[in-house]
Design a protein that fits this description.
This protein has helices at 31-35, 64-69, 75-86, 113-118, 133-137, 149-161, 163-168, 183-194, 229-236, 244-247, 282-293, 304-311, 313-329, 347-362, 366-386, and strands spanning 7-11, 17-21, 55-61, 91-98, 101-110, 143-147, 169-175, 201-205, 214-219, 224-228, 259-263, 275-279, 297-301. It is α+β, with helices and mostly antiparallel strands and 387 residues long. It has a domain at 55-181 and 241-311: Aspartate Aminotransferase, domain 2 (3-Layer(aba) Sandwich), CATH 3.40.640. A hairpin with an 8-residue loop joins β8 (201-205) and β9 (214-219).
Length: 387
């Protein structure tokens, strides 16, 4: 969005993207601060629950190949392909692997069925745009945007600032967020679990091949490795792998999207894949109904309370609030929203979240973080033994 190209997103020491600003170019116009999902509008939105919605469903793609290769049902891919075939969009903003650096996927603007299919599957690491927002405005036709809550929030903020962008985006498809690990999680998984140097990897897929899916790795020598999703989760979701901003995420189900989608935890049991689908706007509801009536999606309406229970939203939101309060009052660090009074919590919740924050705080030190990354396999064994 920067009108003078003064911002460059680079990987910082904590393993996430940070804005590096050329202050010789910067004019202090404030557009970047208004667009940033961590700085703007955070205090104006409710934190609880699913947010506003029209209907909740569980469903999956009628195309069995797409359903098998996708992360959880192939609904996003089916929506994009259908909109492209109908001419309602000319392209889509999606995340797919960068052939130049397979461990650092990028957000691309694509306009072909082939690219949309290639982008199937979750990417559990930070991503950045591969294009400028001003270039998106000049694209012929309308586009769909697929992203996590922070991505969708940023686009919504930008649309308030530039009507051309609002007119350009046809629909926002929002993915649920269960926290997104930094780059170190993937690097150390390859080093410690796979047992190789990350430079040997030419392709990595975090999900797909049924549900909940497998993490697959291909090397330069043509060797392939496959791991259960549980192997990845048990390795990568410790505080030293989680960006601070993700710890204080308050929008878990992507409340700013037209359609929100995620794994159907607690609502479906199969080995192929099923998605939770939340329609939030008339355009989102109409598209889902159209795809259902034309046989491209298999759908079943579900109780919103079941969605909340399946995703564990009450506990997630409560833990977020407790950690935010601890981070503000004990560590005197900023969070995206301020709590004027402590949330209600039990002694067990207080102790566990205080321990989490202490771990997170310690991991901001480079040497401690490196030690924790190297010790992750041992930490995982100890945690499994305790549980």
């Amino acid at each position: 969005m920067c009108p003078v190209d003064a911002i460059d997103m680079k990987i910082a020491l904590d393993g996430t993207y940070k804005p590096f600003i050329d202050f010789h170019k910067c004019t202090n116009c404030g557009l970047c601060e208004r667009a940033c999902p961590s700085l703007s509008n955070a205090q104006k939105n409710k934190i609880r629950g699913l947010g506003s919605f029209m209907n909740c469903y569980v469903g999956y793609s009628a195309d069995t190949k797409i359903r098998w290769e996708a992360s959880s049902g192939g609904v996003v891919t089916t929506i994009l392909l259908s909109l492209l075939e109908k001419g309602l969009i000319s392209g889509a903003v999606i995340v797919k692997s960068d052939p130049k650096d397979p461990l650092k996927p990028l957000m691309f603007l694509v306009n072909s069925r082939e690219d949309i299919v290639k982008a199937m599957g979750s990417k559990y690491c930070p991503v950045k745009l591969s294009f400028r927002i001003k270039d998106l405005v000049n694209v012929q036709g309308k586009v769909a945007v697929v992203g996590l809550p922070c991505h969708i929030w940023a686009f919504r903020n930008l649309e308030k600032m530039d009507k051309r962008l609002k007119d350009k985006i046809f629909i926002h498809l929002g993915l649920f967020c269960g926290k997104n690990p930094n780059f170190y999680a993937t690097v150390y998984f390859i080093r410690k679990v796979v047992g190789m140097n990350e430079r040997e990897v030419v392709e990595i897929s975090y999900r797909g091949k049924g549900w909940p899916g497998k993490l697959s790795i291909m090397t330069k020598r043509g060797e392939s490795y496959s791991f259960e999703l549980s192997d990845w989760i048990s390795f990568s979701y410790y505080p030293h792998f989680i960006p601070i901003r993700c710890v204080f995420r308050y929008d878990i189900t992507n409340q700013q999207a037209d359609i929100s989608l995620g794994d159907a935890w607690g609502l479906a049991r199969d080995n192929i894949g099923t998605s939770v689908i939340i329609t939030r706007t008339p355009v989102g509801e109409n598209i889902i109904q159209y795809l259902y009536k034309t046989g491209k999606l298999v759908l079943k309406e579900v109780d919103p309370k079941q969605v909340s229970q399946g995703q564990g939203l009450e506990d997630e939101v409560k833990n977020t609030l407790i950690r935010a309060y601890i981070w503000q009052r004990i560590f005197h660090k900023p969070t995206p929203y301020k709590l004027s009074y402590p949330p209600q919590f039990s002694l067990k919740e207080w102790v566990s979240n205080l321990g989490y924050c202490l771990w997170l705080y310690a991991a901001q030190n480079k040497f401690i973080r490196t030690a924790l990354c190297n010790l992750t396999p041992l930490i995982s064994k100890v945690v499994r033994w305790i549980r």
